[in-house]
Amino acid sequence: MATTDQEVNELIKREYEHGFVTEIEVDTFEPGLNEDVIARLSAIKKEPEFMLEWRLKAYRRWLEMKEPDWAHVGYPKIDYNSISYYSAPKRKEDMPQSLDEVDPELLRTYEKLGIPLHEREKLAGVAVDAVFDSVSVATTFKEPLAKAGVIFCSISEAVRDYPELVQKYLGSVVPHTDNYFAGLNAAVFSDGTFVYVPKGVRCPMELSTYFRINAANTGQFERTLIIADEGSYVSYLEGCTAPMRDENQLHAAVVELVALDDAQIKYSTVQNWYPGDENGKGGIYNFVTKRAACIGKNSKVSWTQVETGSAITWKYPSCILRGENSVGEFYSVALTHNYQQADTGTKMIHLGKNTSSTIISKGISAGKSSNAYRGLVKFGPRAEGARNFTQCDSLLIGDRCGAHTFPYIESLNKSAIVEHEATTSKVSDEQMFLCRQRGIDPEQAVSMIVNGFCKEVFKELPMEFAVEAGKLLEVSLEGSVG
Amino acid sequence: MLSIKNLHASVGGKEILKGINLEIKAGEVHAIMGPNGSGKSTLSQVLAGNDAFEVTSGEVTLNGDNLLEKETEERAREGVFLAFQYPVEIPGVSNLQFMRTSVNAMRHHRGEPEMNAAEFMKLAREVSKQVDLDPAFLKRGVNEGFSGGEKKRNEIMQALLLQPKLAILDETDSGLDIDALKVVSDGVNALRAKDRAILMVTHYQRLLDHIVPDYVHVLADGKIVKSGGRELALELEARGYAWLGIKDEATAASSAN
Ligand SMILES: Nc1ncnc2c1ncn2[C@@H]1O[C@H](COP(=O)(O)OP(=O)(O)O)[C@@H](O)[C@H]1O
Ligand SMILES: [Mg+2]
After folding, report:
1. What single string gives the DSSP state of each residue in B192-225?
2. Reduced to 3 states, what is the DSSP secondary structure of residue A12?
3. B37 lines ligand 1 (CB under 6 A)
4. CB of B15 sitting under 6 A from ligand 1
5. Contact yes or no for B80/B66 (Cβ under 8 A)
6. Rounded to the nearest 5°, which phi and psi values hold at A199?
7. Beta strand pairing status for B197-202 and B29-33?
8. Strand ranges (DSSP E) for A81-232?
9. Are B17 and B7 in contact (CB under 8 A)?
10. B70, A436 in Cβ contact below 8 A?
11. Are A233 and A273 in contact (CB under 8 A)?
């Protein structure tokens, strides 16, 4: 390309847009993890006894677990005792009763991030739960949702107000024994979102959580639980950002979805944690366990993710297709640049009859980054007539990056049908030349080509967010032309 | 308008253009003919600024401006258009979006307001009719799954949309059947204008039955070996490249057409 190194460097230097720090008084635990810390955390949250027991059990088990090393990522060993497990903005009473009681500095922070929480300026048709470090600071549109019978609140509130639902479903999809990070999360999760959509209800608006990491040296361990009762429908979106810091920060979330008979959950993620600088310094370690249980017949879960941030992403949103005719979908765009590493994909576990799943994965690698797709499609002995379609495409920008595909298929049922397609392509010099010959700026050309590559996934996102995702790719790709 | 002086260019250390001299005035249509491998596409690409090719010496000016020191996109915005011999596909990017981005890049350069999607759609539909391309093609990915002929018509459509100062058409006639050739030629003739120069690269003279050039140049081994009027093309057709002492493995095939 004719763009000189000088120009490229200028472009790379553009700052991560959400990299500011909010100056606010906080209550933060001293770094370190032990049973006392967990007990304090549980006490601050005024949790019922069962919750503390549950956490401690997970913690004791976690101590015996080993950090996984099979992913295609590399990072220095994490010292779990150097992390603080709780940080929250100071406040007089425990929960703000209305938005007027929320610290204005916090409201300003979300406004700056494009998420106005104020009554007057709220996002039309989208209810937001705003999670700041370890706590949920505000949830919008609670009343109209309550009218429809939909429960949308922070998980801390749910633990107190809906203990039966929490006790029944928390850990039912991702048990604390599942993996190292899920175990840690079960022990120390601080906040997150809880959604319950009752029988036959179509949730009247999009629900979303906006996660913000602000404090330094703090881990964010959020936990999300969404239950769609029989015949219900809900569309949920999460967004994430963090300040620019030189130290790596850990984000180990767990998301559990439960879909009963004929229920449908659409879960979309736009992940834009701070990815670190152009030399690979700093950034979020994003180690997330996301899983859906389609327990009901004809239930359906769609995961759509656009992953552009984080220094390391380790994430496999999965579906356990237990109910007859249940459907699992995974649509993913994962973009890595500079020194980012992503190992992401999905697991589709077909247990029930005539279950079907679709996997569309688009990996984009630029700079010196590494991008891996890892997917498992499994058919149990009773998955008569089950089928999967997988399409895995990689796009390379430049020649210093890497793309890897690890598809695993295990079938215990002969009638199961699997189709797998995979391609690797480059943003070619010919494509770039064509665009530029038509007067189009090189940066804009790359972004247009990449957006075209991601089209099948973007069309699964709710409209507003599809536009947002396109812009995000553009920003994330800045400096990739060279 | 376009002035090429002693242009030398190479690719991978191999010299392809070995001193091209050419003057094209506004309003003129020049045809460049020559056997395969003589450097016709190289010349086209070099003029458009493809940096896969290295210009080792020479001078190219467009209306007095040094073209060689400008980036591809700047040349394009200043009115250089290249219809590609082999248009590349851009999967997932709709033709409509691509063309609108292009048209707006040019408008932006001229300080004109951008065209919105609806305005552009209207314009694009009209122009697509001119090249007999079903408007459904506007929604498809750029050149994605287009036949050879559809790709060529799509290129001419873009020329008509962008109204360039200098249109370079690289073998826009190859691979077309008689009907498509007529459509494409009509498109090119519609481009002819007092303030526009057209450089038409072709292997065969049959295109020149439809688009009558003002001048014909024969390119062989990176040099223009003969220039003349329309009649030069006819003579070439009748006598073959061998007449000029040029080797061409495809001549036999072309005269058989
Ligand atoms: N990218 C390239 N790398 C190496 N050689 C090339 C390249 N492009 C063209 N050439 C060579 O340059 C010569 C002229 O090619 P070209 O300009 O395409 O001829 P024409 O269009 O007249 O058929 C040929 O010998 C061809 O093999
Ligand atoms: Mg050629």
Report:
1. --TT-EEEEEESSSTHHHHS--SEEEEEETTEEE
2. helix
3. yes
4. no
5. no
6. -45, 130
7. parallel
8. 87-89, 126-132, 135-139, 151-154, 193-197, 206-212, 223-228
9. yes
10. no
11. no
Predicted confidence (pLDDT) per residue in A38-48, tens digit = 999 999 889 99
A interface residues, B as partner, C-beta within 8 Å: 1-2, 428-431, 433-442, 444, 448-449, 451-456
How far apart CA B176 and CA A436 sit, in angstroms, is 26
> Candidates B17, B36, B41, B217: which one to mutate for ligand 1, based on the most atoms within 8 Å of Cβ?
B41
Q: How far is CA A336 from the centre of its chain?
A: 15
Q: Tell me which ligand sits closest to the C-alpha of residue B219.
A: 1
Q: Is the ipTM of this complex over 0.85?
A: yes
- The confidence score (pLDDT) of residue A340 equals 81
Q: Where are the domains of chain B?
A: 2-89+163-256
Q: Check CB contact under 8 Å for B92 and A451.
A: yes
* Cβ partners under 8 Å of residue B116, min gap 6: none
Structure tokens at A146: 């309550």
Q: Rounded to a whole number, what is the distance in angstroms from the first to the last CA of chain B?
A: 35
Cβ-contact B56, B238 below 8 angstroms: no
Whose CA is closest to A288, among A223, A358, A334? A223
CB B32 within 8 A of CB B40: yes
Report pLDDT digits (tens) over A230-289: 999 999 988 766 666 666 778 889 999 999 999 999 999 887 777 777 777 777 788 889
Distance from CA of A432 to the nearest CA of B (A): 10
For all residues of chain A together, what is the average pLDDT? 83
A126-132 vs A206-212, strand pairing mode = parallel
The answer to whether A408 and A377 are in contact (CB under 8 A) is yes
Q: Using CA positions, which residue lies closest to atom 25 of ligand 1?
A: B37
A341-382 pLDDT, tens digit each: 878 899 999 999 999 999 999 988 888 888 889 899 999 999
Cα–Cα distance, A185 to A252 (Å, whole number): 6
Work out the burial of residue A49: count CB atoms within 10 Å of its CB; fewer than 13 is exposed, 13-18 middle, 19 or more buried.
exposed
B2-89+163-256 folds as Rossmann fold (3.40.50)
The Cα A321–Cα A350 span in angstroms is 5
Residue A27's pLDDT is what? 75
Q: What does the alpha-carbon distance between residue A38 and residue B29 come to, in Å, rounded to a whole number?
A: 82
CB A435 within 8 A of CB A413: no
Q: Rounded to an integer, what distance in angstroms lies between the CA atom of residue B191 and that of residue B196?
A: 8
Question: Residue B180 — φ and ψ, nearest 5°?
Answer: -65, -35
d(CA A121, CA A144): 16
C-alpha distance from B232 to closest chain A C-alpha (Å): 31
d(CA B50, CA B73): 10
Rg of chain A in Å (alpha carbons): 22
Query: Angle formed by the axes of helices A49-63 and A35-44, to 10°?
Result: 150
Pocket of ligand 1 contains residue B52 by CB under 6 Å: yes
Q: What are the pLDDT digits (tens) for A89-146?
A: 666 455 555 666 677 776 777 676 666 666 555 555 667 777 776 666 667 777 888 8
Q: Which of A40, A37, A44, A50 is closest to A159 using CA atoms?
A: A50
Sequence length of chain A is 482
Residues 6+ apart with CB under 8 A from B240: B248, B251, B255
Give residue A349's pLDDT.
97
First to last CA, chain A: 6
> Which residue's structure tokens are 């049922």?
A413
